[in-house]
Amino acid sequence: MSEMKPLLLLVDDDRLDTLITKRCLKELAVTNPVVCAASGEEAIEYLTADSCELPCAILLDLNMPRMGGFEFLEQISTLEQFRSIPVLILTTSTAQEDIDKGHTLGAVAYIVKSPNIVEFKEALKCVTRYANVAHNEPCGMANQADACHPMPQAQ
Q1: How far apart are CA 130 and CA 147, in angstroms?
Q2: What are the domain boundaries of the chain?
Q3: What residues contact residue 88 under an 8 Å CB cut-off, 6+ apart?
Q4: 97 and 70 in contact (C-beta within 8 Å)?
Q5: Which residues contact residue 90 at a Cβ distance below 8 angstroms, ignoring those fewer than 6 apart?
Q6: Which DSSP symbol is given to 125?
Q7: What's the pTM value of the predicted model, to 2 decimals?
Q8: What are the residue ranges of helices labelled H in the chain?
Q9: Which contacts qualify for 117-124: CB closer than 8 Å, 24 or more apart?
Q10: Beta-carbon contacts of residue 86 (< 8 Å; ≥ 6 apart)
C-alpha cells in the first residue's frame, strides 16, 4: 500500500502559470497532490479551514488580486501553526527589493518564472526538497532550507 504524500499549496492567480507549474512538477516526478488558491486571501481561507491538511510547502506568487504574496507572508508569519511551513516564492519579478522583502518575511527560496520552460523547470527542482516529506516528519523541514536555492542575504 502506498503512503499518501503531503500536499503542496500553489498560490497563483494566473491559470496558465498554475498549469505550467503543475506540469513541470509532474515532469520532475513530484507526485504530491497540489491544492491551488488564486489569491493570498483564498490561501488563508484554505489554511484556516477546520478540515485543512497542512501543506509541506507553499509555492507563492507575489502579484495577485485582493491579497498579494507579501501580504500573505505577513499574515501567516503571525500565525504560529504556519511558521514552520516553507514558502517558496514563484514570481516574474527580478527586483532586488522584492528578493530582499521575501527574505525578510521568511521565504526559503525565490524562483523567477522564466518564459523558457526548460529554465523554469530547472529552477523548480528545488521544490523536490520540500515535496518529498513523509507525513511523520515535521512540516517545513527547517534543516533542509539550505538545500533549496536559499534566499540571498539581505544587503
Answers
A1: 9
A2: 8-147
A3: 57, 58, 59, 60, 107, 108, 109, 110, 111, 126, 127, 130, 148
A4: no
A5: 12, 17, 21, 59, 60, 61, 111, 113
A6: G
A7: 0.83
A8: 15-27, 40-48, 69-76, 96-104, 117-124, 128-131
A9: 117/20, 117/24, 120/20, 120/24, 121/24, 121/27, 121/28, 123/149, 124/21, 124/24, 124/25, 124/28
A10: 56, 57, 58, 108, 109, 130, 140, 141, 142, 145, 148
The string of pLDDT tens digits covering residues 14-70 is: 999 999 999 999 999 888 899 999 999 999 999 999 887 889 999 999 999 889 999
Site of grid cell 497563483: 12
CA distance 141 to 51: 23
**Domain 8-147: which CATH class?**
alpha beta
